[in-house]
Specification:
The protein has 389 residues and is α/β, with parallel strands linked by helices. Helices cover 38% and strands 13% of the residues. It is globular. About 1% of the residues have low confidence.
Length: 389
C-alpha cells in the first residue's frame, strides 16, 4: 500500500510511539491522583502541555486537552455562544469548513443564532478556495459574537490569511476561532502573531496518536469565556472534565516538537514530491484540472493535490488502484455520497466534483512511492477509459 492520504490521518511516528509507551505501561498512574504514581504522570503531562503551549506561542493555562478536533470545535463554538454572558446572537463561518464546524453552526442556528456563511474565491483563480476578505468584512456586524475560519483546508489545502481575518473580527468586537487541524505541524502557527482567540488541533494529523486534540482558549491579548460542554470531575479548570490522557498528551507534544524541528526540510521535500506527482499525472493523463489555489507556500499546503479527471469518477479510480490510499473527496465526510461541499463551494460543478481526487503527500513518502503511484494511477485510469467507464 502506498499511503497518499495524509489529510485523512498520518502514521504515528515511531519516535512518538516510543515517547508514549512508558506512560501506558510502567507509569500508568491517574494524573489526578495524589500518590507518587499519579504525581509523576501529572508532572510529565504538565511538562508536555507547557511544551505544546510554547510551540503555539500560547499561554500555558490557555491550553485545554480534548479527544480531537471535533470535540475542540464543539467546545469552542458552542462554549462561546452558549456562555450565559454572551449577548451577541450572530455567528459567521466559511462555506468550505469541515463538518465539525458547519454542523455546530447548523445546530446553533436551530437554537436561534443568526448564521452567515461567507463564500470563497472560485476555482481557476490564483486564490481559489480562500475566503474573500471583502465579503467576510461585510458579513461581520456589531452583533457578531464569533467568526470561525479554518487555517488550512483539508481537501484543497487552501491557507487562509489568519492575521488579516483577526483584524476584521476584532474591529467589530467579534472573536475569532480557527480550526487549525490541517495547519498545525505543517506550517508555522503562532497564536499571538496571528491574534487568534480560539484554536483547535488534533494529534493524528501531525504524526501523533488518534484520540488526542487540543483547544487553545484565549491568547495574551484577550481572555475568552467558555461554557463547559462536558461536566464531571472538574479537571482542566472545569472547562473540560474527565481524566486526562498522559500518553496521548505526551505523544501530541512529541509529535508537535518533531514537526516544528523538521518543518523547513519537510515543507520543501513534501512540496517537491507533490509537484512531481502533479507534473507526472498531468503529462500522462490528458484533460486533468487542478482544484484549489495555485501552488505556493503562502496559499496551499505543501503536500496537497486535488484534481479533476476529464471522464472518470474519483471513486472508480480509487477502486481501480486499490494499492494506493487516496481519497475521492473528503475522507472525513466519506459517509456521504454527495459531491464534496468544498469543491462545489469553489463553483466546481457536481459532475467535476465527482470526478475529483485528493492526494496528501506526507513525511513517510519517498520519490519511489510517487513514481510507482503515478504508474499505477495512469494504468488504472487507462483501463477504466478502455472499459468506457
Ligand atoms: C479540518 C478538520 N477539522 C476537523 C477534523 C476532525 O478531527 P478529529 O478527527 O480529531 O475529530 C478534521 C479531520 O478529521 C479536519 O480535517
Amino acid at each position: 500500500m502506498i499511503y497518499l492520504d495524509n489529510h485523512a490521518t498520518t502514521r504515528c511516528d515511531p519516535r512518538v510511539v516510543d515517547a508514549m509507551v512508558p506512560w501506558l505501561s510502567e507509569h500508568y498512574g491517574n494524573p489526578h491522583s495524589s500518590h507518587s504514581l499519579g504525581v509523576e504522570s501529572h508532572q510529565a503531562m504538565e511538562k508536555a502541555v507547557c511544551q505544546i503551549a510554547g510551540l503555539l506561542n500560547a499561554p500555558v493555562d490557555s491550553v485545554v486537552m480534548t479527544s480531537g478536533a471535533t470535540e475542540s470545535n464543539n467546545l469552542a463554538i458552542r462554549g462561546m455562544c452558549l456562555h450565559p454572558r454572551q449577548k451577541r446572537r450572530h455567528i459567521v463561518t466559511v462555506s468550505t469548513e469541515h463538518p465539525a464546524v458547519l454542523d455546530v453552526f447548523a445546530d446553533l442556528q436551530g437554537s436561534g443564532f443568526r448564521v452567515t456563511h461567507v463564500p470563497v474565491q472560485p476555482n481557476g483563480s490564483t486564490n481559489a478556495g480562500i475566503v474573500d476578505l471583502g465579503q467576510l468584512e461585510e458579513a461581520i456586524d456589531d452583533d457578531t459574537a464569533l467568526v470561525s475560519v479554518m487555517w488550512a483546508n483539508n481537501e484543497i489545502g487552501a491557507i487562509a490569511p489568519m492575521r488579516d481575518i483577526a483584524g476584521l473580527c476584532h474591529d467589530r468586537g467579534a472573536l475569532l476561532h480557527s480550526d487549525a487541524t490541517q495547519a498545525v505541524g505543517r506550517i508555522p502557527v503562532d497564536m499571538l502573531d496571528a491574534d487568534i482567540d480560539l484554536l483547535s488541533a488534533t494529534a493524528h494529523k501531525l504524526y501523533g496518536p488518534k484520540g488526542t486534540g487540543l483547544l487553545v482558549v484565549g491568547n495574551s491579548n484577550r481572555r475568552v469565556r467558555l461554557n463547559p460542554q462536558i461536566v464531571g470531575g472538574g479537571q482542566q479548570r472545569g472547562i473540560r472534565s474527565g481524566t486526562m490522557n498522559p500518553a496521548g498528551i505526551i505523544g501530541m507534544a512529541t509529535a508537535m516538537q518533531l514537526c516544528n524541528d523538521e518543518m523547513n526540510d519537510h515543507h520543501e521535500r513534501v512540496a517537491r514530491l507533490r509537484d512531481h506527482l502533479w507534473v507526472t499525472l498531468n503529462s500522462r493523463i490528458e484533460g486533468l484540472r487542478l482544484n484549489g489555489p495555485e501552488f505556493g507556500p503562502e496559499r496551499r499546503l505543501p503536500g496537497n493535490l486535488n484534481l479533476a479527471l476529464p471522464a472518470i469518477e474519483g471513486q472508480a479510480w480509487m477502486s481501480a488502484v486499490p494499492e494506493i490510499a487516496f481519497s475521492s473527496g473528503s475522507a472525513c465526510s466519506a459517509a456521504h455520497t454527495a459531491p464534496s461541499h468544498v469543491l462545489t463551494a469553489l463553483e466546481i460543478d457536481e459532475s467535476a466534483a465527482r470526478r475529483s481526487a485528493r492526494f496528501g503527500v506526507g513525511r513517510f513518502n519517498h520519490v519511489d512511492d510517487i513514481e510507482a503511484a503515478c504508474e499505477m494511477l495512469v494504468e488504472g485510469h487507462a483501463k477504466l477509459l478502455a472499459l468506457g467507464n
